[in-house]
């Protein structure tokens, strides 16, 4: 996907998800215009790490390491 094709929602979602995964506080919700932290906590903060872990586990099964 070309970054020029991203919607504002996709950019905002990626921004919050990536920074949250790297330890940025819940106050990040203010940067993206949320009136409270609830949306940030429910929608964004839980999503990225499980998805990355799931994909990494799948790749480990597809391409096992030689020992």
Describe this structure in words.
- The chain has 67 residues and is an all-alpha fold.
- 60% of the residues lie in helices and 0% in strands.
- It has four helices and no strands.
- It is elongated and about 50 Å long.
Helix content: 55-70%
Ranges with pLDDT <50 over ≥5 residues?
Answer: none
Order of helices and strands: HHHH
The number of helical runs is: 4
Gross morphology:
elongated
- The structure class reads mainly alpha
Radius of gyration: 15 Å
Q: Biggest sheet: strands, sense, closure?
A: none
Content of β-strand: under 5%
Mean pLDDT equals 78
CA-CA gap between termini: 36 Å
The number of E-state strands comes to 0
